[in-house]
Amino acid sequence: MARKISMKQAINEALDLEMTRDPSVVVMGEDIVGGTGSPGEDDAWGGVLGVTKGLYAKHGDRLMDTPLSESAYVGAAIGAATCGLRPVAELMFIDFMGVCFDQIFNQAAKFRYMFGGKAETPVVIRAMVGAGFRAAAQHSQMLTPVFTHIPGVKVVCPSNAYDAKGLLIQSIRDNDPVIFCEHKNLYGLECDVPAESYAIPFGEANVLRDGGDVTIVSYGLTVHRAMEAAEALARDRVEAEVVDLRTLSPIDWDTIIDSVERTGRLVVVDEAHPRCSIASDVAAFVGQNAFGALKAGVQMVTAPHVPVPFSPVLEDLYIPNAPSIAEAARRTLSPTGTSPRSIAA
Amino acid sequence: MTDDLASQGPFPLSRDDLLKAYRIMRTIREFEERLHIDFAKGDIPGFVHLYAGEEASAAGIMMHLKDSDRIASTHRGHGHCIAKGVDVHEMMAEIYGRSTGACRGKGGSMHIADLSKGMMGANGILGAGAPLACGAALAAKVRGDGGVGISFVGDGASNQGTFLESLNLAAVWNLPAIFVVENNGYAESTSRNWAVAVDSYIDRASGFGLPGVTVDGTDFFAVYEAAGEIIRRAREGGGPALLECNMVRFFGHFEGDAQTYRAKGEVEAIRASRDCIRMFAERVIEAGVVSRAELEAIDKEATELIEDAVRSAKAAPLPGPADLLTDVYVSY
Amino acid sequence: MVPVVGIIANPVSARDIRRVVANAASLQITDRANIVLRVLAALRACGVSNVLMMPEQGGIRGHVERGVARARAHGDAPYPAIHLVDMPVTGTVADTHRAAAAMRQAGVAAIVVLGGDGTHRAVATHCGDVPIAGISTGTNNAFPEHREPTITGLATGLAVTGQVPAPIAFSMNKRIDVCVNGGDVREIALVDVALVTERYIGARALYRTENFRELFVTFADPEVIGMSAIAGLLEPVARDESGGLMVRLATPAQRQAGTYRTELRAPIAPGMVTAVGVTDWRRMPAGVPFVPEVKAGSIALDGEREVSFSARDRVSLTLRDDAFRTVDVGGCMRFAAQNRLLAGVPAPAPATLSKAAL
Amino acid sequence: MQNERIKPIVMPKWGLSMSEGKITGWLKQPGSTIAVGDDLLEVETDKITNVVEAGEAGTLRRVLAEPGNVYPVKALIAVLADPDVPETEVDAFVAGYAVPKGDDGAEAEAAPRYLFTETPAGTLRYAKRGDGGPTVLLVHGFGGDLDNWLFTIDALAEGATVYALDLPGHGQSTKAVADPTLAGLSAALRGFMDTVGIGPAHLVGHSMGGAVSMRTALDAPDRVASLSLIASAGLGPEINHAYIQGFIAATGRRDLKPVLETLFADPGLVSRQMTEDVLKYKRLDGVDGALRALSAALFDGGAQAGVLHGAVAAAGKPTLVVWGGQDRIIPAAHATALGSNARAEVIPNAGHMVQMEAAGTVNALLKEHIGVR
């Protein structure tokens, strides 16, 4: 039965359901229980933003607080995954990948290939991504492209509670390592979510809005900005098709190409930096595979090529917004379909 | 295999197990000596890091393990593989880059793995195995199956953050994890005496609340006994521990290493005085438990086994172009 | 004569299996180095200006040198000059043997030893009549007394500078000589010799009693840890009385059959209080060779298996009184108190030795 | 409305969740003469696009809603009036028109859209609309749910007490199907009637739900007042096995949409949202297993396992058979399987989902057959 819950609740529910279904699912991370060994109450935090709150009471020691030691526990999650567990390790902020990246990209990502297909690493690494939290340069990044560059890991970034639940359940059941990116500014966003378990397959983009004039491709938080832009465009009789990629590795090229072949125009919105981003990746793919369908140059709307600033005034400028997306869409409809170079090289 | 250290015979292992241990060590030695020759001939692509001289550590530890116990190895992993039961033919084929290799020719010397044997992989990243072994230990602990996870690191990799973080994690979670520092005195070419600030791995372990034991890693019985106690303790829920095996490396860091950083005559001296296989043989023969002829028969079989492995590896098919793109993700 | 004191600090003692099987202590390298610094300060306070140290690669030396340099940077000079024995470092007990011999040859007035029974045994093998000042940093330490090293350093300093007369400053100790197939003494033990039936040295430390058959001790002190505690709990023998004790232990068959004389619960290792069956014991007079009943097995000296022997080998054990000298720390300090040796300003430092002079 | 000669045309409410609709196009020009049942315009909701039929006759005097715009349910979108009604009166009517609110909204708030009940076959979801009159029970088909009666339930509820349920394995009911045969589903249906307290009812079954209804009429004739079989299974062996297999196998939008399009004569009716809703259902744990079990039990090898028309003909229940002439799932030829024992109506320009594609016609036939006034 569906009811409105937030993305934070949806993630909690997915973990709860999978831990109930499968005793090999364990969840670990810094403060995911909270207060372990401290004099106050057990399960004090349930994650730094409370995402795992209440799970300890149900599942006990299968939720494990860890020392602040990402290399060790992310590595342990990966090692345990090769030994039959299905660990979900929370990296808290994706920015912390820097201290444990070897375990992700040289170990987890490589095992299946390097060991000739004889190893499976069903680990999920959950991490908060994205700006808008006034958390500055080391707690706000959208580092998805760093992971999509690595063969062997899957990369997921849901834009809403329904997708978050179904994609997280799929991530846990998937036999490959999955980087599950949770935009912290979407945690509170509610939508209809079935109470039952369900899995959304990877590589299936969601078309949130049909439209024949321009295709807007995005993922995560900026999907909502893209929808706002589409509504604004609709008031001007421009119908935008909005594609939410949902998973970035694998990525649903077919849906993108199908849409661009109908609309002939493409705007890619990415909260990551512009260089070697999801946006540039999609733009390049469409350029190579649907050039004939394009009626205008592909527009990329991304964060600027700067670290995430702290001051709210600056951070608000940093995140791609609806007017800039709508403007990019209008550029594709202008006679030349070109725009001033918007990216610092 | 026997866990019964209290047996009242002259050795803590049965006669059969003594022969098995000897066969493991001899097979490793033959494997490595043969690679040394064939690499020099240019038959083998890439890097190989040889384990010769260190056999007592692999054998003394692995004799206590079951297939369900997991080890995370190092770049110098051939000995660990053989001692853990990985098929020698598959290993050789892998080193030759053949499709019949343990990793279908996609891993090579530095990445031989066989999870069915509990071998989580040799590892090209120094220190990376320590967290993985913690994971194996965690899996065993969650399942409550009495298994252990063992991380091998060299003296060099003991300086990696992953290793030190893993000591802490294993202690905090009280994991059945065992950290074996195979101290051959050299981190590649750099002396451990210079590169390790606190010159004792036991002190490092103590700093994280783990007991540590140092043994002569060239003495099979020393390794066997200490490892047995440490593994038993871990299986019984006693938590992690560290074992330092002081040992010697007969060859260079990798093949092709001229070893000009070593003292003159050093290798000859250790081959003469600290050959773990010869010391083992002398002791068991002297005790009258096995005969020299029995050991010589094993020597011959090991030589033949390796010869056959090389012959079949060279004859084995190479991977095809289609293999380039497979085994990246699970196929649905 | 300018007294020079030798210091042998073993970086690898207290690293054996008893840390795993018995929660034994593990003294860290930095702690050992700090002990050396405390001893150095005490020696200097008594007028010792030069020490000769065993080189090692376990990290003690580096910490000591940093400590000395730090003091010097402050303008203090609380430490004697440190000289190192010129010798290669192997990282094994051979270093201790070599260093002790070299120090004796260099004419040191005493050797301060940091280590366990094993390290002291190695030094005692080579030190001749040079007195040993023992500091316990090992595991199963029956031989060196447990005491703050500063006091040991003071006593040594007072003894070697002649401020305490030698008859008071030094005391004699017993040892057991182990001979295999006649000839020279093969090994010695300072406290105990244990005969076990297994034929391998293994992890050296003796912590199981199933294969343990015979025990010979130089002294039997119920206050000490280790295999000698079995003897100590049966019939105490003091360090300064002649002769020792031998004990025969029940085999598992005898234990099962109940054919043994008594059962003891003895602290055979730190944290291990183990039941052993004893069939008989008697005094072991000095100078009389004993042939053990175990025909093939291993010999553990001061708690560590060292020698493996077969049925063809002839093993004999002989206890020696007055075998080597140690600094009597208690005696020195009582004398110092009675004679106000540590009153007033410190004695002027004699001239520093150069390394070449050693 | 004081002027009975002026008739408002408002945004319809289709189903329980519809709150607004988008005008996709007018099918009649202003000034046209309109007869009852004429197609007036097309409206797109987030579920489906459908044609609004005229409920009354008259001249289309005003077209107020513009194509492409979205209007709330019950908003005035056009005005019918007799030709002789003066323009000023029509203008006044439009100016004075107020969207009725209150009673209907309050009712919707008071009565939950969906109810759940614990039955021997598990938790079943259902909806109940209307009060008094005959009791009607709507039974959906394979892979469907009670929202298949989007255009049916409220129309019948005007004069009947209408129940619609999700069968086990479907919608939001328990996904486990203990007995995937027609007898098992029929038992589940009767268990539902028992728990909710439904006496003899007029069973309206679509597709597989028709066969379940027939099975019920045979196994428990006293519980069944009449049968209405819409594109029903159980009237012959043929069935589009590719559809069944495709429906089960599809995991994504691109696989599923073409499969769903075979359900309709006009594939354009399959909206993005309809596809997404079916996908959301199919993703639920247990659904795949339920569908495979049902398919194996009912359509194994591409033929219907339960062909009941002989027995049903003999049973003598009043029976209506309705079919879409362009049904691509079960051939419309099955419509006449009961011969003279049933009234058979084939609606030419409709497919398998005839009750949605030709809602007005089907609703009228049902009302007449059941006796809804």
From TrEMBL, chain A:
Pfam families hit by this protein: Transket_pyr, Transketolase_C
GO molecular function, one term: oxidoreductase activity
CDD domains xref list: TPP_PYR_E1-PDHc-beta_like (cd07036)
UniProt KW Oxidoreductase keyword: yes
Record key words, sorted: Oxidoreductase, Pyruvate
Domain of life: Bacteria
Sequence ranges assigned to domain Transketolase-like pyrimidine-binding in this UniProt record: 5-189
Gene3D superfamilies: 3.40.50.920, 3.40.50.970
Entry-linked InterPro entries: THDP-binding, Transketo_C/PFOR_II, Transketolase-like_Pyr-bd, Transketolase_C
NCBIfam families assigned: PRK09212.1
Protein name: Pyruvate dehydrogenase E1 component beta subunit
UniProtKB/TrEMBL annotation, chain B:
GO biological process: pyruvate decarboxylation to acetyl-CoA
Keywords, ordered alphabetically: Oxidoreductase, Pyruvate, Thiamine pyrophosphate
Entries under InterPro entries matching the protein: DH_E1 (IPR001017), PDH_E1_Alpha_Subunit (IPR050642), THDP-binding (IPR029061)
Needed cofactors: thiamine diphosphate
Reactions catalysed, as given in the entry: N(6)-[(R)-lipoyl]-L-lysyl-[protein] + pyruvate + H(+) = N(6)-[(R)-S(8)-acetyldihydrolipoyl]-L-lysyl-[protein] + CO2
Stated role: The pyruvate dehydrogenase complex catalyzes the overall conversion of pyruvate to acetyl-CoA and CO(2). It contains multiple copies of three enzymatic components: pyruvate dehydrogenase (E1), dihydrolipoamide acetyltransferase (E2) and lipoamide dehydrogenase (E3).
Name of the protein in its database record: Pyruvate dehydrogenase E1 component alpha subunit
Originating species: Azospirillum brasilense
Lineage of source species: Bacteria, Pseudomonadati, Pseudomonadota, Alphaproteobacteria, Rhodospirillales
From TrEMBL, chain C:
GO biological process terms, semicolon-separated: NADP+ biosynthetic process
Taxonomy, superkingdom: Bacteria
Alphabetical list of InterPro entries matching this protein: AcoX-like (IPR039065), AcoX_kinase (IPR011391), ATP-NAD_kinase_N (IPR017438), NAD/diacylglycerol_kinase_sf (IPR016064), NADK (IPR002504)
GO molecular function: ATP binding; NAD binding; NAD+ kinase activity
A Pfam family it matches: NAD_kinase
Keywords: Kinase, Transferase
Matches recorded under PANTHER family: ACETOIN CATABOLISM PROTEIN X
Protein name per UniProt: Putative polyphosphate/ATP-dependent NAD kinase
Automatic annotation (TrEMBL), chain D:
Record's keyword annotation contains Iron: no
InterPro entries registered for this protein in UniProt: 2-oxoA_DH_lipoyl-BS (IPR003016), AB_hydrolase_1 (IPR000073), AB_hydrolase_fold (IPR029058), Biotin_lipoyl (IPR000089), Carboxylesterase_BioH (IPR050228), Single_hybrid_motif (IPR011053)
Cofactor(s) demanded: (R)-lipoate
Keyword annotations: Lipoyl, Pyruvate, Transferase
Domain Lipoyl-binding: 6-81
Family matches, as Pfam families: Abhydrolase_1, Biotin_lipoyl
Keyword rRNA processing annotated: no
Alphabetized PROSITE patterns for the sequence: BIOTINYL_LIPOYL (PS50968), LIPOYL (PS00189)
UniProt-listed Gene3D superfamilies: 2.40.50.100, alpha/beta hydrolase
An MF annotation (GO) of this entry: transferase activity
Name of the protein in question: Pyruvate dehydrogenase E2 component (Dihydrolipoamide acetyltransferase)
